[in-house]
Design goal:
Helix content: over 70%
Oligomer: single chain
Number of helices: 8
Distance between the termini: 48 Å
Strand content: under 5%
Keywords: Membrane, Transmembrane, Transmembrane helix
Number of domains: 1
Radius of gyration: 18 Å
CATH topology: Rhopdopsin 7-helix transmembrane proteins
CATH class: Mainly Alpha
Largest sheet: none
Number of strands: 0
Structural class: mainly alpha
Order of helices and strands: HHHHHHHH
């Protein structure tokens, strides 16, 4: 990656740390009345965080040694797509007494499986990537919508605002990534926006956790 420094690569771990903290407070909150659903949420969060860690580690290796490890580069969306799908499913079924694990496993497995089939059918194109990107976008949108809605009905509009602003920051990164000339300055801007966005997600999840202790929603 041209103009990508070790310092910038190390900074990429900051938004991942915020994401991990946000997922921690989210998964341990009173939001999940069913422990099976809570475990599904934890599994989804683990996939999301793992994808971010592998991508950040790839950037650090590229910046420090110049070595390009393809599977680490591709791991971000390969893991995040099923991760967000599983997390959104857990949020959707969070208070269900009977959760169909087969549906959760099927939904999670289908996402990378379809990407694999597309990659085999169109090996010279990156259609598999666009499929995963679409799934991440849709599942993340659903996740943020449900979290913002929960905060609103818990009587705390600040929670909703934090999640929405986090989502706006994340979406803005896709537009910045399309700029052809990815200079070091632009990449610092992108990483800073990402850090702020994930920081807002962390604050939203922390506040939601505290609010649900005081005012449980069923």
């Amino acid at each position: 990656m041209k103009d990508y420094t070790v310092a910038l690569a190390l900074f990429d771990y900051v938004p991942i740390a915020f994401t991990a903290l946000g997922m921690y407070w989210l998964c341990r909150s009173e939001l999940f009345g069913n422990q099976t659903v809570r475990k599904l949420a934890i599994a989804g969060a683990a996939l999301i965080i793992s994808g971010g860690l592998l991508k950040a580690s790839w950037k650090l290796i590229v910046a420090s040694t110049g070595e390009h490890i393809v599977w680490m580069n591709n791991s971000l969306f390969i893991l995040m797509a099923p991760g967000f799908t599983l997390l959104s499913y857990a949020l959707f079924t969070r208070q269900s007494l009977f959760v169909r694990l087969r549906i959760a496993v099927l939904l999670t497995s289908l996402v990378p499986l379809i990407a694999f089939i597309i990659a085999i059918a169109y090996p010279d194109q990156r259609l598999w990537f666009f499929w995963l990107l679409a799934m991440v976008t849709l599942a993340n949108t659903a996740t943020i919508f449900m979290l913002a809605r929960t905060g609103w009905f818990a009587g705390d509009g600040i929670i909703s605002l934090l999640y929405i602003l986090s989502f706006v920051g994340t979406i803005s990164l896709s537009g910045l990534a399309r700029i052809p000339e990815q200079t070091a300055a632009l990449q610092w801007i992108e990483e800073s926006i990402n850090a702020v966005a994930q920081g807002l997600f962390f604050l939203g999840s922390l506040r939601l956790n505290k609010r649900l202790v005081e005012n449980p929603i069923r």
